[in-house]
Amino acid sequence: MKKKIAIISILLLLVLALSGCVKVDYTTKINKDGSGEISYTYEMDKAVIGAMNQTNETALDERIAVAESSGYEIEEYETDEAVGFKATKKVQDITEKSFITEVFNSEYVADEDTSKINIKKTLFGKKYSQKATIDLTSLEKMKELGMKLTYRVELPVKVGKTNANEISENKKTISWNLKIGEIQEITFVASSINLINMIIFVIVIVIIVTGLLFIFREKIFKKEKKEKNSKVKQRKNI
User: Fold this and answer.
1) CA 152/CA 164 separation, integer angstroms
2) Nearest in space to 175 (alpha carbons), one of 109, 130, 116
3) What DSSP letter does each residue of 173-219 carry, written as one string?
4) By the 8 A CB rule, do 122 and 139 touch?
5) In whole angstroms, what separates CA 82 from the centre of its chain?
6) 132: which of 92, 128, 186, 221 fits an S-S bond (Cβ 3.0–4.6 Å)?
7) Is 56 strand, coil or helix?
8) Which of 113, 109, 105 is nearest to 133 (CA)?
9) Per-residue pLDDT of the chain (238 residues; tens, 9 = 90+)
10) Longest Cα separation, the chain
11) What DSSP designation does 101 have?
12) Hey, is 5 helix, strand or coil?
């Protein structure tokens, strides 16, 4: 009996290794007004489901239930080799919390507060940034089974600094191929420029400089006039 179980376990591991096991593709879309959209796909290979003695439907039931409880809309799909679903949720404030923990359990995120996406208003626009630490060391055994996790961010402006693995041609979409069994940093900084604010700032500076020059010129003119009057008085006294 034990020998039979061992053989089944080995066969199951082989199937998992060859099939690619589970694929999770997570995307955060950030809009200019600070709102956004969170979406992710969760996909399992049919060979894995069969090896686990489950049906295509029951294999995803638990994950779908968790996503729906977090407010995601679900769209299930099926290909020749895999079954999965896409979960989507629109949010009014993308900085409200660390939405990444809704997909990657909080135990995998080093600090939920610091892992949030930040949007900070600057003098000439906005600064979008994130600095998160994803710890997947507890999934070391899944590394050889072909588990794939991708984290992607779609920005409203071109990215400045980032450690992303991939950057799109327009530099607005960045993605990380998360390494199973390792700790990985996710960082990016992107800034937008508000031309109206910049123009207003330049105009104000020009007005201030012009005003200072005018005041300085008036002082020089008054000083010269005073000196001239003083010389005239001296001549009259002589």
Assistant:
1) 9
2) 130
3) EEEEEE-TTSEEEEEEEEEEE-HHHHHHHHHHHHHHHHHHHHHHHHH
4) no
5) 28
6) 186
7) helix
8) 109
9) 433 333 333 333 333 333 457 888 999 999 999 999 999 999 988 877 766 656 656 768 888 998 898 899 999 999 888 899 999 999 999 998 777 776 665 555 655 666 789 999 877 789 999 998 888 887 776 666 677 889 999 999 999 999 999 999 999 999 999 888 888 899 999 998 766 666 766 777 778 887 788 787 777 777 766 666 666 666 666 5
10) 132
11) G
12) helix
- What residue type is 35 in one-letter code? S
Q: Which two tokens stand for residue 34?
A: 């600070």
Whose structure tokens read 């402006």?
157
- The amino acid sitting at 93 is D
Amino acid at 203: I
Residue type, 232: V
